[in-house]
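Dear Dr. H.,

I hope your travels went smoothly. While you were away I took the liberty of generating a structure for the chain from your last submission, since the lab meeting agenda had it listed for discussion. I wanted you to have the full record in hand beforehand rather than looking at slides cold. The sequence, exactly as received, is reproduced here:
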Amino acid sequence: METWLLEGDVQRLVVVVTGVDSGETLERWQFNVSVDDKTGADGKKAGDENNGPVSNEGSSTSTSSGTAQKMGKSVKEIHNEIQAIIRQITAAVTFLPLLNEPCSFDLLVYTNKTAVVPQKWEDSDPRYIMNSQEVKLRSFTTSVHKVESMVTYKEADEWEL
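The corresponding predicted structure, in token form, is as follows:
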């Protein structure tokens, strides 16, 4: 995934929270990723979501921000922006409905058509939520990427309140 990010192949990361018992999508945390200068490290243009999302259920990856000085933004500034988003995500418990069943999560990665997808990953539907509420969260930029975030969640039925 680090290679995809560095080459500008990732356009959106989505964390989908699903009820284990109901199989229903309860929350959808979306992070839209765009390359600031619209070209990746290899000079390719970042395209639209030509590929559907691919799912790597239950796995996690992390990337380092080793390319932080390209456009003058310091690593500390980038870390502060990321910390602000993490605080906002943590504070989301104040408006998100309580999850009353065991949950699992899937990671959906929207990529360009040119991205090489590992064989263990599989295509997935976008897992949209019907009758949902949407809240836009903060965005942040690095020297390479701009990330805009939002959460969509299942609206609580009146009788559940």
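Two observations you may find useful: DSSP finds two helices and seven strands in the chain. The CA atoms of residues 34 and 146 lie 5 Å apart.

With kind regards,
E. W.
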